[in-house]
Amino acid sequence: MSLELLLLFADRIGTFVFALSGGVAAVRRDMDLFGVITLAFLPAVGGGTLRDLLLDEPVFWLADPWVLGIAAAGGVVAFVAATPVDNFKPLRWADAAGLALFAVTGAAKAQELGYGMPIVLLMGTITATFGGLLRDVVANREPLVLKEDIYATAALFGALIYWLLSLSPLTEALAFAGGFAGALLLRGAAIVWKWSLPKPRA
Amino acid sequence: MSLELLLLFADRIGTFVFALSGGVAAVRRDMDLFGVITLAFLPAVGGGTLRDLLLDEPVFWLADPWVLGIAAAGGVVAFVAATPVDNFKPLRWADAAGLALFAVTGAAKAQELGYGMPIVLLMGTITATFGGLLRDVVANREPLVLKEDIYATAALFGALIYWLLSLSPLTEALAFAGGFAGALLLRGAAIVWKWSLPKPRA
Amino acid sequence: MSLELLLLFADRIGTFVFALSGGVAAVRRDMDLFGVITLAFLPAVGGGTLRDLLLDEPVFWLADPWVLGIAAAGGVVAFVAATPVDNFKPLRWADAAGLALFAVTGAAKAQELGYGMPIVLLMGTITATFGGLLRDVVANREPLVLKEDIYATAALFGALIYWLLSLSPLTEALAFAGGFAGALLLRGAAIVWKWSLPKPRA
């Protein structure tokens, strides 16, 4: 399998797993089938959509509507099987891999357009986490990504590693792999050891 | 009256009725005049605005600011007469007609730009329903469109009928009328017989 | 100091003060460091970002990422010192000045692009207030700007004064100063005498 095909395949998996998270959240809020599918779309494609709007690039799924089908499929699976999906532990790791992947692909898109570090890191973080934020805002619950856990920070870290490596003489593929691994390791460590960011003393 | 003039007229009515729904929601949340007008804007122009941003088209009201005046007028009417507006039953049917109209105009815009079925259906649905979703998110209540009733589904159905007919040798006007009628009939049936989409077993 | 430099300086201060408001809101909602910085970004750059997306202009901070650093700095300050920041009364006046400034710069951007009164006023108001609205929506609290106080109205008023003066033979700088003063005076009066917009009788 070529690298490009592998990436495409991984991107599809990440989209599907992110969609599951939105679908499950919708089921928990007693939404109907349309609501479940809508909430599946938000984490699956929301981050990349905002990235493209901000960068004034064509929204990625306009030229690749299969993504929408995969997001909808994630919603349907959550609709018929929310509880087993929610209890299926390996999904946390698939979610972590999706986070790491989207952080690096988002950063790479800004990098290719010639932007400097701040925009590259911001776009990596937005691509990986903004969809989940939208999911929580629309479900009218407090956004978890803003309160708990090392999640967005892992995306930011992966984007930073990618950016640093892309300055080095390493190939793009290695920079990509390094950023992905960085985000995944930090997120994984946060899952295993329940790391959290500091909170202010109230 | 020419077809174009009729459509323009219907679009104005739809905008006004959608604005009323936002204004009434704002009054119910004890908002002030600015809040009522802001919440009138969201359902009135929010869906079409998002559609245009996603399609990278100029936002429709930039070239037609009358729409903004009509939305503001809907807000003012809701401000001074929220309870009679809310109790005025025929408004449900005007809202259904607005939903059907925006579903078809949104779908037609994507169709004209050359997009295929998934984008056409998505844009029809977004144009018709996303503004109402924004209204509920900003009013900090759970989005009704995601929980109850056949509403967004009627928009999706109308967009589908339009898309199917636009492949046939029928004229654009007939495809338009068919999509409009399809959405209106399904929404009307849902109002009369209180149809809802299935919900997951919790 | 030239006028341009003064404006740039004022813009930086306004961004920082708006960021503080978001950061403090996040601390009050028990968010972690990432959440505090995210909520600092929303009021600091959210309004101008939406304005640029709607006008199909390049998002302003893409070419000026220092803005992002200033917004992040506001978040960090709120994180370590939310209570003193919140109790520091002069900040209300800095916030009022930020509101007045963003109203005029937002209006001026639309004006320069050749738009008429409705769009100029709308963009002034959006630039000045939409970020605060986003802050409240993401923090899952009812948007204060829609309920209390003369706030958005002051932005609208400043944009109107600017627009009127820009039609007169006065220089752009004077139109700018007039709009700024108008918004600041109205907002200041609302702070001192606790003015509010009318609310509907429920």
TrEMBL record, chains A, B, C:
One Pfam family of this protein, by short name?
Gly_transporter
What is the official name of this protein in its record? Trimeric intracellular cation channel family protein
Q: Where in the cell is it found?
A: Cell membrane
**Membrane topology of this protein:** Multi-pass membrane protein
Please report which protein family the annotation says this sequence is part of: Belongs to the UPF0126 family.
Residues in Glycine transporter domain copies: 9-81, 93-165
Task: Please verify whether the record's keywords include Transmembrane helix.
Answer: yes
Keyword terms, alphabetized: Cell membrane, Membrane, Transmembrane, Transmembrane helix
Native species: Parvularcula maris
GO CC terms of this entry? plasma membrane
Q: Which residue ranges does UniProt annotate as crossing the membrane?
A: 6-26, 33-54, 66-85, 116-138, 150-167, 173-193
Q: What is the lineage of its organism?
A: Bacteria, Pseudomonadati, Pseudomonadota, Alphaproteobacteria, Parvularculales
